[in-house]
Write a structure and sequence with these properties.
heterodimer, A: 8 strands, flat, binds guanosine-5'-triphosphate, binds magnesium ion
Chain lengths: 460, 314
């Protein structure tokens, strides 16, 4: 349905292929394509205009290396800038105040505030061992309070009862007192959905903010939002000193341009994203994933998550155990990962599973070649068990032997070893974290094995 | 069963209310078209600004490009010089598109309940729209029953139940976690036995990308069809006006999975201009039945192309 940005850009650059430099002239038409691509991805127009100006500044005059087309070079600039603007990944909630730390939820109707209240409560309880109390000040929508009560009991946190006859402010004060008395670490205050242009309701939430002096004021926004994200983010940002944003419903196929709009307009970090209706479907925000989705280059990481079920869990667990014991990730382990990836149908099969809105341009398929994976396996197969276990042994003469044995070049061996190093580093980082996280990271690293020929944003 | 009541329910205050809310939102053309062109003449800057306005209204790149190409060529040919001409040239093609989808829901039936199945992605306003519809039809003299088909989301049954109580209409519900199709089956049997005119079935919000959930929705539809081969008589998708390009993807997927017969657009009282209406109307031609303009019971209106476009331009 959508043309990916890279496809668009390559097309517009076709006439000037081979020229080594991006100039004011040759980026002009292309920047129009960038503008269109961002608009198609629902980035708000004023934000698009700003963004395109920044790209122009960064692109004009920059050199294009011979290995990529000017289109690809510009895609990389766009992707980098976008990832930059979307912010650093994972900014946790800041709860360093005298307890109870109050979190205030705000947003439009139906954006996911109540569900996210439950998700945050579960997260704080499980990952941060906090005692959490939740309360609803939504006295307007039918059964809004019942909904939060049910959600709280599902995640096993305490619920402070309220009634639709009460005034929101009174509920808030009572809940805060109860949280103090009950020695809770955190109080999360759910609010009714409201429009940014509803002055009375915006005044109400400002006053709740004043009363509660929350340490976190979170703006909850639906990832499917279109141009209106700009108006709404502005209105909420003006009415409340927001501390962060939560992007919900990322599990759909929306291009998610609202993420950039809201990030830019509020100037606040996107802290989490909601990835499902279930109360554990909350993840730290991943700017790289959202960036590649906005650009229509597919979201390899999410893809891999889908394919994850196919991964041999036994072998994965064995590996995890081994890493936990402090043994390092060797070349045999890496080969095992490559084999599993082949089992999932290889990179190209994964690519084909990408959402319609995010198809890989034909040319790029080749870069992420399944042949590469085959060659990497051949290289590992040409090593002795000792070499696989102790990659440091592999010096010049061994490299030559392995290259000859696998029909590759020494520089391929070098690249393989470098990739192994990177993965090993990552393994260390993840060996403490959950299995899923680790598998995901490994698989996505595999997607990156084509080295710098890969389109940016793909292999994260 | 004689049903002589008019099947389109119009409210006199609609235009005023819609325009008021649109103006409140500094809506795209209402406000800007006047400020866009301080003098009477139209220049290229005005056209560029207009393009921005269309994009900002979520009309989408495709529709905007098409409209602008047309307006541009008229402008270049000297056929648009005044702002009134510009407004008319914009209005005409939009009206063409919207008139084709202006087909109000006809709930007349010879016998048996008219079954209205409501579906859509999470949080768009399905349950609220059902509450408003119940009131509309009760006021128009129909007997109405609601089916609490969202057995998944916390508090969903209670929410619909409260809407039932507000409007004095019965709500058929099972326990949370029950099979949605079984609720629908049960509700139809009761509606038929009671001689109810209109049965409106709520369903859980679901993303159109979730194959299993779309399958579940198709099953609800099949179960209804088993009891009355012509049911559901309306399968209505609810779309949130704040949604961007994804709305089109939603409409396509739901249509593929369950076969839609109508559309309702909610939350038009906010700052969203609801350009999705155009995109979906253009590509799918699905009838637009109602528009939601607020959270209160009375904030629902029959979609009217002329009034809609008028409200945008006056
Ligand atoms: N697929 C998906 N659905 C979500 C997510 N977050 C929330 N939802 C669903 O979105 C709908 C609305 O969520 P709520 O939590 O009720 O939203 P709210 O902002 O509290 O709504 P109001 O209080 O009515 O303004 C529900 O059906 C939720 O299950 C998400 O990350 N993914
Ligand atoms: N401003 C405004 N809010 C609306 C409108 N229609 C619904 N809402 C609000 O949107 C929120 C979600 O509405 P629901 O009816 O619960 O939506 P739903 O589609 O049933 O949600 P799920 O069942 O969770 O998928 C509620 O806060 C409603 O009050 C409308 O036309 N305008
Ligand atoms: Mg809520
Ligand atoms: Mg509902």
């Amino acid at each position: 349905m959508f043309e990916s940005l890279s496809e668009r850009l390559n097309k517009s650059f076709q006439s000037i292929r081979g020229r080594g430099r991006l100039t004011e002239d040759n980026v002009q038409a292309t920047l129009r394509e960038v503008r269109m691509a961002l608009l198609e991805a629902d980035v708000a127009l004023p934000v698009v205009k700003d963004f395109v100006a920044r790209i122009r500044e960064r692109a004009v005059g920059s050199e294009v290396t011979t290995s990529v087309t000017p289109g690809q070079a510009l895609v990389k600039i766009v992707n980098d800038e976008l990832t930059d603007l979307l912010g650093s990944s994972n900014s946790e909630l800041d709860l360093r105040v005298k307890p109870p730390a109050v979190i205030l939820m705000a947003g439009l109707q139906g954006s996911g505030k109540t569900t996210t209240t439950g998700k945050l409560a579960a997260h704080l309880k499980q990952s941060r061992k906090q005692s959490v109390l939740v309360v609803s000040t939504d006295v307007y929508r039918p059964a809004a309070i019942d909904q939060l009560e049910k959600v709280a009991s599902d995640v096993g946190v305490d619920f402070h009862p309220s009634e639709s006859k009460q005034k929101p402010k009174k509920i808030a004060v009572e809940a805060r007192d109860a949280a103090r008395k009950g020695l809770y670490d955190v109080l999360i205050v759910d609010t009714a959905g409201r429009l940014g242009i509803d002055d009375a309701m915006m005044a109400e939430i400002s006053s709740l903010h004043e009363t509660l002096a929350p340490v976190e004021t979170l703006f909850v926004v639906d990832a499917m939002t279109g141009q209106d994200a700009a108006n709404t983010a502005k209105a909420f940002g003006d009415a409340l000193p927001l501390t962060g944003v939560i992007l919900t419903k990322v599990d759909g196929d929306a291009r998610g341009g609202a993420a950039l709009s809201v990030r830019q307009i509020t100037g606040r970090p996107i802290k989490f994203m909601g990835t499902g209706e279930k109360l554990d479907a909350l993840e730290p925000f991943h700017p790289d994933r959202v960036a590649s989705r906005i650009l229509g280059m597919g979201d390899v990481v999410s893809l891999v998550e889908n394919a994850e079920q196919k991964v041999d869990q036994d072998k994965a667990e064995k590996l995890a155990k081994k890493l936990k014991k402090g043994k390092s990730f060797d070349l045999e382990d890496m080969a095992e990962q490559l084999r599993q990836m082949q089992q999932m149908g290889g990179i190209n099969a994964l690519m084909e599973k990408m959402p319609a809105g995010a198809q890989m341009p034909k040319g790029m398929m080749g870069a992420a070649d399944d042949k590469q994976v085959g060659r990497m396996l051949a290289m590992v197969n040409s090593m002795t068990p000792k070499e696989k276990a102790f990659p440091d042994l592999i010096r010049a003469s061994r490299k030559r032997r392995i290259a000859a044995g696998s029909g590759t070049e020494v520089q391929d061996i070098n690249r393989l070893l470098k990739q192994h190093q990177q993965m090993k580093k990552m393994m260390k980082k993840f060996s403490k974290g959950g299995m899923n996280k680790m598998m995901r990271a490994m698989q996505s690293q595999m997607g990156n094995q084509g080295g710098n020929q890969l389109p940016p944003g793909m292999g994260r | 069963m004689a049903k002589s009541k008019s099947n389109t329910i119009k409210q006199p205050g609609f235009l005023t209310r819609l325009r008021a809310s649109l103006n409140r939102g500094n809506s795209w053309l209402t406000y800007d078209l006047r400020n866009l062109l301080p003098g009477e003449t139209v220049d290229q800057d005005a056209l560029d600004e207009l393009e921005s306005r269309l994009l900002t209204a979520d009309l989408g790149v495709d529709a905007t490009t098409r409209i602008m190409e047309r307006v541009q060529s008229l402008f270049d040919g000297g056929r648009i010089t005044t702002r009134e001409q510009l407004a008319n040239e914009l209005k005409a093609p939009m009206l063409d598109v919207l008139r084709q989808v202006e087909r109000p829901l006809d709930v007349t039936r010879e016998s048996g309940p008219f079954v209205l199945l409501v579906a859509g992605v999470n949080g768009v306003g399905k349950t609220t729209t059902i509450g408003k519809l119940a009131r509309k039809y009760v006021d128009a003299g129909y007997s109405v029953m609601l089916a609490a088909g969202d057995t998944f989301r916390a508090g969903a049954v209670e929410q619909l139940t409260q809407w039932g109580e507000r409007n004095g209409v019965p709500v058929v519900a099972q326990s949370s976690g029950a099979d949605a199709a079984s609720v629908a089956y049960d509700a139809y049997a009761r509606a038929a036995a009671r001689g109810v005119d209109i049965l409106i079935a709520d369903t859980a919000g679901r993303l159109h990308t979730q194959g299993n959930l779309m399958g579940e929705l198709a099953k609800v539809k099949r179960v209804l069809g088993k009891q009355d081969t012509s049911a559901p008589h309306e399968t209505m998708l609810v779309v949130d006006a704040t949604t961007g390009g994804n709305a089109l993807s939603q409409a396509r997927s739901f249509h593929e999975s369950v076969g839609l017969t109508g559309l309702t657009v909610t939350k038009l009282d906010g700052t969203a201009a609801g350009g999705v209406v155009f995109a979906i109307a253009e590509t799918m031609g699905l009838p637009i039945r109602f528009i939601g303009v607020g959270e209160a019971t009375e904030d629902l209106d029959v979609f009217d192309a002329e009034r809609f476009v008028d409200a945008l331009f006056k």
